[in-house]
Design a protein that fits this description.
The chain is an alpha+beta fold. About 30% of the residues lie in helices and about 30% in strands. It has two domains: about 70 residues; about 120 residues, Lipocalin (Beta Barrel).
């Protein structure tokens, strides 16, 4: 059959070329039928075999389906399966736990070994599989200087206050040679909903073993509170944050920070 003989290896471009040729053929047919003489009409209609026209219609439909499939594939490229996989693992750990108490580091993989977070990124492999010294674990990428995070603080205690926007700006990060499991962080925090935000200084640290940013505001209004933000959502762009009261550690407000692109 003519339609089957076209082969299955046609690309979208091939279909489009054939489709364009057939459109030209139909256009000629319409012109011939409109202005041609009866003998020209009859000869043209005898030449165009009905099966060929049917095949052309099937090619047209196939080209449309392939084009839609191409659009879906292009859209799928924007969906990062790697990030979604780690996001799912993080959600499971949040519900079931990772088997390690407190701020301990779980060595991951097939190992259920737990070590202190203070042994992570100290230059010595304490995990049997060396996971505590891997580059991605000891990376400060989540809180590198210049990163800006936005969230919306929801107050659950301490003060009677309406929910409001909050912005974190990381201004500096560095690691002291004598203590590498943590990096010191300088930042600015704004709780202002106005267009012209007012930023206040904050200082703290980033814990590599727990992927946690802890900041202590240096201004009078919030001197008795601090922020604990953990990157436990499968990527470096989102963190669950709690604003706590010193020294009781009572949670005053919560938010989810999202990095600006």
């Amino acid at each position: 059959h003519y339609g089957r003989g076209l082969g299955r290896s046609f690309t979208i471009a091939t279909f489009l070329i054939i489709n364009k040729m057939l459109r030209i053929l139909f256009a000629v047919a319409l012109v011939a039928c409109a202005i041609g003489e009866d003998t020209l009409k009859s000869k043209f209609l005898e030449t165009v075999e009905p099966r060929l026209l049917g095949t052309a219609m099937r090619i047209q439909k196939s080209a449309e389906k392939l084009e839609k499939l191409k659009e879906k594939l292009d859209a799928a490229e924007k969906y990062d399966l790697y990030d979604r996989y780690h996001d799912l693992l993080s959600r499971v750990d949040a519900v079931e736990g990772n088997g390690c108490p407190g701020w301990n580091f779980q060595c991951g993989g097939h190992s259920r070994q737990c070590i202190s977070h203070l042994l992570v990124c100290d230059g010595h492999e304490d995990c049997d599989n060396g996971a505590d010294e891997e580059d991605d674990v000891c990376s400060s990428a989540p809180v590198k200087a210049g990163r800006i995070f936005d969230g919306h603080a929801q107050w659950v205690g301490c003060l009677v206050r309406e929910d409001h926007p909050v912005t974190f700006v990381i201004t500096n990060i560095y690691t002291e040679k004598y203590f590498t499991p943590r990096a010191k962080v300088n930042a600015k925090i704004s709780y202002d909903a106005a267009a012209e935000k007012k930023y206040q200084e904050a200082r703290g640290y980033y814990n590599f073993g727990t992927r946690t940013l802890v900041l202590f505001p240096k201004y009078e209004f919030a001197k008795n509170r601090y922020a604990v933000c953990t990157f436990n959502m499968g990527d470096n762009d989102h963190a669950n944050c709690e604003f706590k009261m010193k020294p009781t550690d009572k949670v005053c407000a919560t938010t989810v920070l999202s990095a600006r692109k």
